[in-house]
Write a structure and sequence with these properties.
three-stranded mixed beta sheet, binds uridine-5'-diphosphate, Spore Coat Polysaccharide Biosynthesis Protein SpsA, Chain A, 2 domains, binds manganese (II) ion
């Protein structure tokens, strides 16, 4: 073999190796993106505290609209001026008139999303179930896959509601209690367990709702977000010093005076499974830590939820349209009441007062 040939072969081999190397890098780069795009990205909590792995469903971050849908031109200079529609951390605050329901539904419908809803009816609270379930059929994510989980100690009293195709109900038996505070507080633990054992990798979103309420108007895709909180109808015009946060230092739900964004409802919250799992896990752990010290936060899990949301900002905030109270006259900025707590006689329905 001549010296020239030798040089040529050496150079060719070097070029081939370089090309192979480049192809390798390119392949792993493309594969990683392809895999993340198709299968979602695996996330493990940094603290390793949780037993579950979730798959981030990337579709939520990618909004595809139909080319054929015609809708009103959006404006950036005209819109609602009587209410604030964005938080200081730039999460939307959902009010009637700030979104186009047809456009939103047309984006989410092809994604085939599924929504779990939890509702607790322990003791005499089963009497609220019928109205809750029937009105949910009329207004809650109509046309979408919905799975309602009813937690109750009286499964026989769960009313059979005719549900549309793609919607179903599961009854989860739970023990009764002679303290309403315990029933209310235990919800977080049961929600956490439900997500771990039944929902992960089957559902996309979850909403946790009070049973003593009825739907009166649309609650749909506009409410979707990673972590979703509802502003309490009782305090939304008040200074934060008046919010009924837990004010004792010893409690893990403590919020210092001069702190707080909004006062959120314990009766409605939701979001992506992994976000709600983290919330439920944290609130339950904190609730238990308090219990060990003999402390029960002022408004049980609502206090813990408010502490959580102060630190972990909700990515979407729902206006009080999403949880009004029947006894409150409607304020002018509330153009529609979508979900509202019914008037109830606590002495009649709670196991203790
Ligand atoms: N709850 C229940 N049985 C009880 C007390 C409470 O099932 O004896 C559940 C029920 O889902 C209820 C929620 O806990 O909607 C919160 O309690 P409640 O609605 O009485 O609190 P409020 O909305 O009046 O603050
Ligand atoms: Mn309630």
């Amino acid at each position: 073999m001549s010296f020239k040939m030798h040089l040529l072969t050496g150079r060719t081999v070097a070029v081939i190796l370089l090309v192979l190397l480049l192809l390798g890098v390119l392949y792993s780069y493309i594969w990683r993106h392809y895999r993340d795009g198709i299968f979602g990205q695996e996330v493990r909590p940094a603290d390793g505290s949780s037993r579950v792995d979730f798959t981030i469903v990337n579709h939520w971050f990618h909004l595809v609209a139909s080319d054929y849908l015609e809708y009103q031109q959006p404006s950036i200079v005209q819109g609602r001026t009587d209410v604030v529609t964005v938080t200081p951390w730039l999460a939307p605050i959902v009010w009637e008139g700030t979104y186009n329901p047809q456009l939103l539904d047309s984006i989410y419908r092809p994604q085939n999303i599924s929504i779990a809803a939890t509702v607790f009816a322990v003791g005499k609270y089963t009497k609220f179930l019928r109205d809750f379930l029937e009105t949910a059929e009329q207004h809650f994510f109509v046309g979408f896959k919905v799975h309602v989980y009813v937690f109750t100690d009286r499964p026989k009293e769960v009313h059979q509601v005719k549900m549309a195709a793609g919607r179903q109900l599961t009854v989860v038996p739970v023990p009764g209690s002679n303290r309403w505070q315990e029933i209310s507080a235990r919800r977080m633990e049961l929600i956490q367990t439900l997500i771990e054992e039944k929902l992960q990798n089957h559902m996309d979103y979850i909403f946790c709702l009070d049973v003593d309420s009825k739907f009166h108007g649309r609650w749909g895709t506009e409410s979707l977000g990673a972590l979703v909180a509802v502003i309490h109808p009782g305090y939304y015009k008040d200074d934060r010093s008046k919010f009924p946060y837990e004010r004792r230092h010893e409690s893990t739900a403590y919020v210092a005076p001069g702190k707080g964004d909004f006062y959120y409802c314990g009766g409605a919250f939701g979001g992506l499974l992994q976000e709600v799992h983290r919330l439920a896990n944290t609130c339950r752990t904190n609730f238990e830590a308090d219990a060990k010290k003999g402390i029960e936060a002022a408004w049980q899990e609502e206090s813990h939820l408010n502490r959580y949301m102060l630190i972990n900002k909700p990515t979407k905030v729902l206006s009080p349209e999403y949880l009004w109270q029947d006894f409150k006259p409607r304020n002018p900025e509330v153009r529609i009441i979508r979900f509202s707590g019914v008037i109830k006689n606590y002495a009649d329905i709670r196991p203790n007062v």
